């Protein structure tokens, strides 16, 4: 992590505005170190095979939190930091939190923010982090449109789509089998536990390079559509934004670069 980035985040928090308080990054400067120490802590505390197997076969709340913090920092660093506009941040958090309250995981500490990037994109990280770029925010002239955009990312988190990438990974899947079979081999356990740290890298690679598979994105579109409607927003908000972007001309390098083509997403979303 770039020390200047961490310093900027700390300074941003020190401003203490209402908007930034809603998006609390007070602990993010420690996230990378926390994640790196997770393996060592696991080795020190996991005294029996049962505890170790649980650690690698299931991602619990603490692990999700550590991964989410690390991924959130990476998103912020790659996309220009957070927009320094209190009204923008307040609006995004008000709409976002109304959606989160009626989502399938209302207990998470949900945080919503706008990234200072002209590209048109949106991201989510485990444990309730949702980001949209300034370029996309500017397309959301109504709260209905904004709700549709944010609800799509909320759906990724409630569906644990990023965490499922880790669980489905061949290397990760082999971990628990090998650990179970070789629970007496300390060196093998040490090696396997260290591989768990690859989970954050797997998620980042998906978010920034590969993207979720199309069916996952279409499912998030539909779930988000339903969530927005449940919360009283016009259900066609996301579709309207996608249609507008398509009419302007789709540039795959700057518009939803890791998402399926706009035409296919529009076709699969209902008009209302």
3D architecture notes:
Mean pLDDT is 76; it is low at 1-21 and 38-57. Strands 1-3-2 form a 3-stranded mixed beta sheet, sandwiched between helices. The longest helix has 18 residues, at 61-78. 64% of the residues lie in helices and 5% in strands. It has 15 helices and 3 strands. The protein has a domain at 61-162 and 210-268. 39% of the residues are buried. The chain has 272 residues and is mainly α. It has helices spanning 3-14, 18-22, 31-45, 49-57, 61-78, 86-101, 134-137, 143-158, 161-168, 170-181, 186-195, 198-210, 214-230, 237-248, 262-268, and strands at 111-115, 122-125, 129-133.
Strand content: 5-15%
Order of helices and strands: HHHHHHEEEHHHHHHHHH
Straight-line distance between termini: 43 Å
* Alpha-beta content class: mainly alpha
The helix content is 55-70%
What are the segments in which pLDDT stays under 50 over at least 5 consecutive residues? Answer: 1-21, 38-57
How would you sum up the major sheet? 3 strands, mixed
Spatial strand sequence of the major β-sheet: 1-3-2
| Radius of gyration based on Cα positions | 19 Å
What is the general shape? globular
The number of distinct helices, counting runs of at least 4 residues, comes to: 15
Tally the beta strands: 3
Overall mean pLDDT stands at 76
Topology:
Elements: H1 3-14, H2 18-22, H3 31-45, H4 49-57, H5 61-78, H6 86-101, E1 111-115, E2 122-125, E3 129-133, H7 134-137, H8 143-158, H9 161-168, H10 170-181, H11 186-195, H12 198-210, H13 214-230, H14 237-248, H15 262-268
Parallel strand pairs: 1-3
Antiparallel strand pairs: 2-3
């Amino acid at each position: 992590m770039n020390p200047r980035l961490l310093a900027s985040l700390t300074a941003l928090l020190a401003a203490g505005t209402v908007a930034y308080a809603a998006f609390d990054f007070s602990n993010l400067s420690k996230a990378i170190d926390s994640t790196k120490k997770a393996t060592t802590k696991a080795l020190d505390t996991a005294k029996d095979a049962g505890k170790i197997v649980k650690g690698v076969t299931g991602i619990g709340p603490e692990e999700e939190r550590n991964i989410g913090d690390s991924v959130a920092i990476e998103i912020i660093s790659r996309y220009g930091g957070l927009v320094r506009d209190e009204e923008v941040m307040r609006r995004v958090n008000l709409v976002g939190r109304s959606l989160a309250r009626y989502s399938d995981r209302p207990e998470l500490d949900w945080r919503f923010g706008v990234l200072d990037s002209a590209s048109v994109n949106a991201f989510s990280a485990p444990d309730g982090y949702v980001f949209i770029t300034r370029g996309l925010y500017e397309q959301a002239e109504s709260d209905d449109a904004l709700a549709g955009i944010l609800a799509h990312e909320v759906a990724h988190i409630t569906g644990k789509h990023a965490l499922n990438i880790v669980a489905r990974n061949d290397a990760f899947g082999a971990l628990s089998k090998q650990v179970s079979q070789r629970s007496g081999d300390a060196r093998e356990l040490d090696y396997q536990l260290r591989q768990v740290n690859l989970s954050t890298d797997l998620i980042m690679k998906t978010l920034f390079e590969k993207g979720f598979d199309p069916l996952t994105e279409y499912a998030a579109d539909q779930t988000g559509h339903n969530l927005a409607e449940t919360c009283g927003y016009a259900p066609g908000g996301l579709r309207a934004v996608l249609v507008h972007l398509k009419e302007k001309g789709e540039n795959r390098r700057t518009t939803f670069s890791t998402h399926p083509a706009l035409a296919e997403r529009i076709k699969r979303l209902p008009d209302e």
